[in-house]
Amino acid sequence: MKPSDAKLNELARQLTELQKRAKALGVFANDRELLECPGCGLLEDVTSTGLLITCRADALGEDTGLRFVQLADNIFRCPSCAQRVEATDELEQTRKKRKARK
Ligand SMILES: [Zn+2]
């Protein structure tokens, strides 16, 4: 193995480790769509550093500290007003479009 290969392998190992730690810290893994409460407007967002937060439409990017509670696969409860929020495909598409604009 060339010295550069060994370096690459080490980097790959470190990256895997980092991803594991990141997930444990609350980084959004992109394994479902972001939520938006139709009742009170609380919405999920992902910060530039990849952390999953919730914020209000009038203060985007400002973490409220609240987190949606998962009840079932696509069903969540709003931590603010307790409304049931269903993750829909339509919402997913909207978010994807938003992401594509970056
Ligand atoms: Zn709500």
Label this structure with key terms.
alpha+beta; binds zinc ion; single chain; 3-stranded antiparallel beta sheet; 5 strands; 102 residues
Task: Describe, in plain words, how this protein is organized in 3D.
The chain is of the alpha+beta class and 102 residues long. The protein has 2 domains: 1-27; 32-100, no CATH class. Helices cover 33% and strands 16% of the residues. It is built from 2 helices and 5 strands, in the order αβββββα. The strands form 2 sheets. Strands 3-4-5 form a 3-stranded antiparallel beta sheet, with no helix packed on it. The chain starts with a helix and ends with a helix. It binds zinc ion.
What is this entry, summarized?
The chain is built from two helices and five strands, in the order αβββββα. The chain is of the alpha+beta class and 102 residues long.
- Helix and strand run: HEEEEEH
Task: Give the beta-strand count.
Answer: 5
Major sheet size, sense and barrel closure = 3 strands, antiparallel
Task: Give the terminus-to-terminus CA distance.
Answer: 39 Å
| Number of helical stretches of at least 4 residues | 2
Q: Round the mean pLDDT to the nearest integer and report it.
A: 85
Q: Which structural class do the helices and strands define?
A: alpha+beta
Share of β-strand residues = 15-25%
The figure for the number of domains is 2
* Poorly predicted parts: none
Backbone CA Rg: 17 Å
- The main sheet orders its strands as 3-4-5
The percentage helix is 25-40%
Envelope shape: elongated
- List bound small molecules: zinc ion
